[in-house]
Amino acid sequence: MSALEMMLKLSLALLFGLLIGIDRQIKQKQLGLRPSMVICIASCLLTIVSIEAFGKFAGENHPNMDPMRLAAQIVSGVGFIGAGVILRKHNDVISGLTSAALVWSASALGITIGVGFYLEAICGVVLIILAVNFVPFLIKMLGPERLNREEVAVKIKVEPNTKMTQIIKRIEHKHTVGNDLWVEYKIRDLKIKDLTDGTQLIELTLTVPKTHYTTDIYYDIKQIEHVLTVEVEHL
Fold first, then answer.
1. Which residues make Cβ contacts (< 8 Å) with residue 114, sequence separation at least 6?
2. Of 121, 129, 168, 225, which alpha carbon lies 20 to 30 A from 50's?
3. Full pLDDT tens readout for the chain, 235 residues
4. How far apart are CA 42 and CA 59, in angstroms?
5. Other CB atoms closer than 10 Å to residue 143's CB: what's the count?
6. How crowded is the C-beta side of 11, counted as CA atoms within 13 Å?
């Protein structure tokens, strides 16, 4: 395999992982841009190493040799380590997916270097770094608004017998920031329950622009009529 073909394969892996990540992020799923790209690049890299290693180490004198058998066990074992950094918070938010993907991709890079494919390892680590740092920054600067939103958890305690539908509609209205900027809150999850003192608790997961401060969300909701207390948590 030529160096150009190898770089083309890894670059296509980054591109296709980016497309999957964009789809997941638009739909507000946990698997976002970074993990999708990193996993796709590392998987492509391991496939290239497996194919090239057979041609390099196996031959007529060793027809049954499988040089990647031990490396495959390394990939499986490191996968358990990566799973250990994935956390599920009390509000059902999953974090650590990018870190887990990087742990797994680090094993792919180590295998690649161990086999002696140094150019492939260099291309792989460069693309992974670009996928984790540069591509998300580029999308943040040039991408559509739907890709530049993040989630916040909001708990709202309201007065008894309040028309909560009006409160929810008020939250979903566009909010002003400064003189001209309009910000839209979108509700992803909603939960309502009664409290022992007769009041109601509304638990929301909102998607808001990444440029919007958490304190602004607090003050926006706090000023709504019949709202007693507000708790906002950045996810």
1. 71
2. 129
3. 688 888 888 888 888 888 877 877 776 666 677 888 888 888 888 888 877 877 776 666 655 666 666 567 767 777 776 677 666 665 566 677 777 788 788 878 878 887 778 888 888 888 888 888 888 888 777 766 667 778 888 999 998 877 788 888 888 876 555 544 567 788 888 888 888 888 899 998 888 887 778 888 888 888 888 888 999 888 7
4. 26
5. 15
6. 6
88, 83, 112, 120: which is closest to 100 by C-alpha?
83
First-to-last C-alpha distance (Å) of the chain: 44
| Assessment of whether the complete model's pTM goes beyond 0.85 | no
**Domains of the chain, start order:** 3-144 (no CATH), 148-234 (3.30.70.60)
Q: Exposed, middle or buried, 106 (CB in 10 Å: 0-12/13-18/19+)?
A: middle
Residue with tokens 């031990």: 70
User: How open is the CA angle 159-161-164, to the nearest 5 degrees?
Assistant: 75
